[in-house]
Design brief:
By secondary structure, the protein is of the alpha/beta class. It contains 8 helices and 10 strands. Helix 3 links the parallel strand 4 and strand 5.
Length: 309
């Protein structure tokens, strides 16, 4: 016989999005500077993108643009697509996603498991190519789709303004001095930065980008050479740090082997950038609290050969 759980222990899947813990990352620290990573891989869809995807879908429902019978359509490098697919499955919507054909096999398998329809685009064109294909599909039949367009949708960054930034302020008791995050759509960086600055005008917010146009930091953009998201504000960051793919790979290995943190490549890039900020502060005899984003877990990248190097 099935026994109903007490009301306080009942879990709604979508209510589990957010409120992720901060984890201290000792290998990134220097001197009197502490470094923390926000463990976004603990979201039910496995990444920071759960926050934005949920807010964009809820915004679509509130506006009447997303109604039963419409298919959610967007371009993705993987994580936002997984979040869309998970949330859509829970809510009863169909999903069609355009993503580069070189997305990791694990991401494709997860998307297929959630029932998403995949349109694979030219790997050489990266996320920009997926954006262009997605726009064409929508233009051909706009009545069939809800196209949130994560790169242009203010509901993307507002999710982080309402949740991620607030959580960081609470979890650090307002002591955060530096926020470091990679930019792809730029939603995480934009929303969190705006919230932190509203309460801490002196906080330093530093963006992270791949060091070259052709790179392996999935989910991030080399803004000088890419289609710039409409929500991206190049004036928002106090500074930008450039990270090479191989250096991010090396940090991912270190995090797994020295901290027990199996995280993805963009998360490793964030930690590498945060460690540079910490070292510079320590070199000048300063203290600080640096917070970065552990965007997703490493399980989606286990087919990559760099783990065994």
């Amino acid at each position: 016989m099935l026994v109903a759980a007490p009301p306080e222990t009942k879990l709604d899947l979508l209510e589990r999005i957010g409120n992720t813990p901060l984890i201290e990352i000792r290998l990134a620290e220097a001197g009197d500077v502490r470094v923390f990573g926000k463990a976004e891989f603990l979201n039910p869809g496995g990444s920071v993108k759960d926050r934005a995807a949920l807010n964009m879908i809820l915004d679509g429902e509130r506006s009447g643009k997303l109604v039963p019978g419409k298919t959610i359509l967007d371009s993705t490098s993987g994580n936002t697509g997984i979040a869309y697919a998970m949330i859509a499955a829970a809510k009863g919507y169909a999903v069609k996603l355009c993503l580069p054909e070189n997305a990791s096999p694990e991401r494709k398998q997860i998307l297929t498991a959630y029932g998403a329809s995949l349109v694979l685009t030219d790997a050489q064109e990266g996320s920009d190519g997926a954006i262009r294909v997605c726009q064409r599909i929508y233009d051909e039949d706009p009545e069939s789709y809800f196209y949130p367009d994560q790169y242009s949708n203010a509901a993307n960054w507002r999710a982080h303004f309402a949740t991620t930034g607030v959580e960081i302020l609470e979890q650090t008791d307002g002591s955060v001095t530096h926020f470091v995050a990679a930019v792809g759509t730029s939603g995480t960086f934009t929303g969190t930065t705006k919230r932190l600055r509203q309460h801490l005008p002196d906080v330093r917010c530093i963006s992270v980008q791949p060091s070259t146009p052709l790179h392996g930091l999935e989910g991030t953009k080399h803004m000088p050479s890419a289609i710039k998201p409409a929500i991206y504000d190049p004036e928002l960051a106090d500074d930008n740090l450039w990270v090479a793919t191989e250096d991010a790979y090396a940090m991912a290995r270190r995090l797994a082997r020295e901290e027990g943190l199996l995280v993805g490549i963009s998360a490793a890039a964030n930690v590498l950038a945060a460690s540079r900020v910490a070292r510079e502060l320590a070199d000048h005899g300063r203290s600080g609290v640096v917070v970065t984003i552990l965007c997703d877990g490493g399980q989606k990248y286990l087919s990559e050969p760099f783990w065994s190097n």
